[in-house]
Structure formats: C-alpha cells, structure tokens
Write a structure and sequence with these properties.
This protein has 69 residues and is α+β, with helices and mostly antiparallel strands. The protein has one domain. It has two helices and three strands. It has a three-stranded antiparallel beta sheet, with helices on one face. Strand 1 and strand 2 form a beta hairpin. The longest helix is centred in the middle third of the chain and has 31 residues. The protein is elongated, with a radius of gyration of 18 Å.
Length: 69
C-alpha cells in the first residue's frame, strides 16, 4: 500500500499495490493510519488462511469446529 497526494489537491490517498484507490483522507496521518490498519487486517487474514482451508476440507463451519473440539 502507498500513501500519496490525491491528484493535485490538499487531500491524501491510500492506494493498493495494484494502483486501485482505497480511500481519500484530509490528513496524511489519517491516510497512514488507514494503510497500517488495512495492512494488519491483511496479515491477520493471511495467517488464518491455513485454518480456513482445514475447516473447508473437513466440511464444517468455523463455529462447528469450535463446538466439536
């Protein structure tokens, strides 16, 4: 993710690596906070991908897996 000026305005934009615009903020610190939070969410989802594949292969929902454990 990258944070840079939004066009030629006083606003700040958060872009994905693909170049897709995610959001526009008034302050640079706000844009940085959004980028950091989205980075943490992405990392969390990546770390849980393995457990989600296990649940899918067993055929249970995550809630059912917790009940049967």
């Amino acid at each position: 993710m990258r944070v840079e000026r939004y066009r030629k305005t006083r606003y700040w934009a958060v872009y994905e690596e693909t170049g897709e615009l995610l959001c526009v903020t008034v302050y640079r610190k706000g844009a940085a906070a959004v980028a950091d939070r989205l980075g943490l969410v992405g990392a969390l989802l990546e770390s849980q991908t393995g457990s989600l594949h296990h649940v899918a292969s067993v055929g249970m929902t995550p809630m059912e897996e917790n009940v049967h454990a």
